[in-house]
Design a protein that fits this description.
Blueprint: E1 2-3, E2 9-10, E3 15-20, H1 28-32, E4 36-42, H2 51-61, E5 70-75, H3 81-100, H4 113-133
Antiparallel strand pairs: 1-2, 3-4, 4-5
Length: 139
């Protein structure tokens, strides 16, 4: 079990890893060794995640989410397979930690009496400034 938050733990069997050849610098090493990691986590069907966390996680995942609700994270920045695995897993855990935080609901409030008076005084002042710009009338 991988402990994500005090209340959420994910079983290792829910995470699938596959290794592919990485692109970029590295010479002959890049052509021989599959160091890039493609990590897959099924957020929609995961029994470890509460429903509200799973929904927020799928929204946070953005383009990393497939149509089936699977989050795909590719890590290929490091030259070793082990470090790429650690980086991909840490990115997934950080995404789940962000989704675990429940957003605060906004409570509608009424403007105070002082703020209403201040707004009206400001409007009155602005109105008088604009009125002073006009041409003198026929009166």
């Amino acid at each position: 079990m991988i402990q994500v938050t005090p209340s959420i733990a994910i079983d290792e069997s829910e995470i699938e890893e596959s290794f592919v050849r990485a692109s970029g610098p590295g010479g002959q090493h890049v052509n021989k060794v599959s160091t890039a990691v493609e990590l897959r986590f099924d957020a929609r069907r995961s029994p470890s995640l509460p429903n509200d966390v799973a929904i927020r996680l799928m929204k946070l995942a953005g383009s990393r989410l497939t149509q089936d609700g699977v989050i795909v994270i590719v890590a290929q920045a490091q030259r070793s397979q082990k470090r790429n695995r650690e980086e991909a897993l840490e990115r997934l855990l950080e995404l789940i930690r962000q989704a675990a935080v429940r957003p605060q609901t906004r409570r509608a409030t009424k403007p105070t009496k002082a703020s209403k008076e201040k707004r009206l005084a400001s409007k009155e002042k602005r109105s008088s400034v604009k009125a002073g710009r006009s041409k003198p009338g026929m009166e």
